[in-house]
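Reviewers of the previous submission asked for a worked example of the structure-prediction workflow described in the proposal, so we include one complete record here. The input consisted solely of the amino acid sequence. No template or homolog information was supplied to the procedure at any stage.
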Amino acid sequence: MSQLIAPHGGLTEPVCCTVPAAEKEQFLAEAGSLTKVPMSAADLSSVYRIADGTLSPLTGPMDSATYNRVLDEAVIENNGKKYAWTIPISFPVTPELAGQLSAGQKVALTNPEGEIVATLEISDVFEWDKMHYLKSVYGTERTDHPGADMVLKGDADKTHLLGGTLRALPQPKSEAFGQYVLSPRETRKLVAEKGWDAVVAFQTRNPLHRAHEYALVYALEVLIREGKNAGAVLNPLIGETKGDDVNAAIRMETYEKLISDRALGDGDSDPELWGPRNEAVPDRVILLGLDLKMFYGGPKEAVMHAIYRQNFGYTNIVIGRKHADAPFQDGTAIWGDFDAQEIFNNLNGDLQIKPINVGFAAFYESMGRVDLMENHKDEKPVFISGKDVRATLQKGELVDPRIMRESTSKILSAAMKQ
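From that input alone, the workflow returned the following structure tokens.
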């Protein structure tokens, strides 16, 4: 295990509920006779992430007491100590199925294709109070937002939740980007091999503009200036996202190109810091994907993003303004710009990973590069709306290189051209 940081929940190593390859046939033979419980694509990602330890210390979906404590206190308890946890995870089922299930029963979980992927020893079957969940996680009574759509529309037919203990087969590797999806154990080994004593994770669900990219560069430079032998992980979420987000395979291609072309941080990083080191930002960045669904949960999800990364062995995470943000349907904000940064000052339980807060960044003509907006109170940045960026790409044209790297523009315009 990497000595960087312990997994969440006071563990010495991440949870592992994955069935070893040698036991796969026996596991499937036994599971074949069990009652089958279907998992949506989004919930399937939670199955695999519990199994590989990304959601340590969970060993399965939460029972009602744990679930409601997360909603009411934003903590879980392990060995008598409280740990931060802000979005509860249990598996939704229909009322018909819930009526056939009870505590003590073992069931088989199936993927959307109907194949058995895991077994669950049920500890609890309980009613899903959807409004309590939404009010707690999203901090609003309103339901015109993506998080509520997932629960009220996506899971409209699901009325109950399951808690229990899980065993799962390893997740099949995606051909497009499977090599970038590692378990916490594999990631910790990789980080240990790098010899880094600090690692900052950069969470994203979008292709990178230079301003996004600068948040990663800035955070890495903060750690290096502190005297750390630091690295950064470009760690996009590649699980279930909204229909209007760019799909994962295309996004991964843009991230790969940024690193292989050594464009990441080019022109925007601090030459006085990197020059004497004979290094550039790409020398200290690795690309790893995280296959887990997006909750569009703002501040509460920012904490979950940190928990996942602590389990991977990363010491820090970039928390930007409007982290994991999605507005109401009328475009108004659910949360304040800095709420996702401030929530870390008021946690009710332990969390070891430390956020590095980064504000908005933009390209400034006076510097000829991207910088934090807070350093340029009186200067207008080069700015293009997301809507204009999308329109440009859909025409098959390249976005202004001050806004987006050429390699990213090329990949996106080829994919989005109508």
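Residues 240 and 328 are 20 Å apart (CA to CA). We consider this example representative of the routine output the project will generate in years two and three.
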